[in-house]
Amino acid sequence: MFIGKGTAERIAELVIARNANLVIFDDDLTPAQQRNLEEICQVKIVDRTELILDIFAQRAKTKEGKLQVELAQLHYRLPRLTGRGVLMSRLGGGIGTRGPGETKLETDRRRIRDRIRYLEQAIDKIAIYRKQQRMRRVSSHIPLVALVGYTNAGKSTLFNALTDETVLVQDKLFATLDPTTRRIKLPNGEYILLSDTVGFIRKLPHDLVAAFRATLEEVRHADLLLHIVDASHPYKEDQIAAVEKVLKEIGIADKPIITVWNKSDTFVNPIETAERLKHKVANSVVISALEHRGFIELFNAIMQFFESRWLEIRLNIPHYRADVIANLYHIGQVETIKYLAKHIQVTARILAEDKHRFREFIRDSHRTIERL
């Protein structure tokens, strides 16, 4: 039982007194609970998941985003069709009714299931396309950095500041729904791909996590996460915990993270607050994306992370093992090659985790960060 009959009747009285036409619950309701409450209150009942789905429907702009939102909507509404056909046919526009897939709610279960299968196949094709993009990225050796964080933490503002882009920035929940990726050049001359992603929220509906798996793949396959935190928010610790929970749910809780405390322009005591925040969370920096402050420290943290992953190695490779050199070109960066009488001498940069592949040929190695 969600609420008792007496509480439901008091809500119905409030609906009449306030002349309300909608009641929103900050929890998920079962189809039966939702139907019973609608019968008592005689207005539409919207739970947390339906509200979030409606916001997502308004924010989706690309074909991919619309497909993903529609899939989540249909998964949510399919079990709620029974006994609601008459009510739903009376509904006009408004929260819980708009967005891709709206007309599908008036079809029978078979047609909705057919539509779900079609959407799942379409999203699978998107996932394949993204996989091909990732393979090209891996072959180009350009690392991917993904911005993650609670919704409205300032990810898009930071993305625009770092890339000179004009991604939508609004003081709204989930203003960014469709992921955007751009290449940027770091102060050391190296390039990274920076991806702006959908904002997380506490109790993120599982249907959304499932529907947005193609989008979340960008986060899952990122080399580094920048966790953007609204440092001015009174419940920032709860928001951090919510983001960490979502990262755990999608299986990337152990991904390397730099915590980025944003909105330092709102601090009353900037220096004191910044030091306190950096001591609160290890491997963190303080910035103001709005005023472009703290970017040097952020870039230094990113560069140090990637430099620490690379090894510079010198190898002696037999002339008949050309396959080893080809492998070096594929997964690393070959810097010099000398063809000597007894072997081929190669210097290259590889990721530390790939060292075991060339162990028998390595004569010397050191982390590239030691040269900085």
- Shape, per Cα inertia axes: elongated
Which regions are unreliable across 5 or more consecutive residues at pLDDT < 50?
Answer: 83-93, 101-105, 167-177
Strand order of the largest sheet: 4-5-3-6-7-8
The secondary-structure class comes to alpha/beta
Structure overview:
By secondary structure, this protein is of the alpha/beta class. It is about 45% helix and about 20% strand. The chain is built from 13 helices and twelve strands. The chain has helices spanning about 5-20, 30-40, 50-60, 65-75, 85-90, 110-140, 155-165, 205-210, 215-220, 235-250, 270-280, 295-310, 320-330; strands at about 20-25, 45, 145-150, 180-185, 190-195, 225-230, 255-260, 285, 310-315, 335-340, 345-350, 360-365. The strands form three sheets. A six-stranded mixed β-sheet has the order 4-5-3-6-7-8, sandwiched between helices. α6 (about 110-140) packs parallel to α9 (about 215-220). The longest helix is centred in the middle third of the chain and has 32 residues, at about 110-140. The protein is elongated. It starts with a helix and ends in a 5-residue tail after the last strand. About 30% of the residues are buried. Mean pLDDT is about 80; it is low at about 85-95, about 100-105 and about 165-175.
Short description:
The protein is α/β, with parallel strands linked by helices and about 375 residues long. It has 13 helices and 12 strands. The termini are far apart.
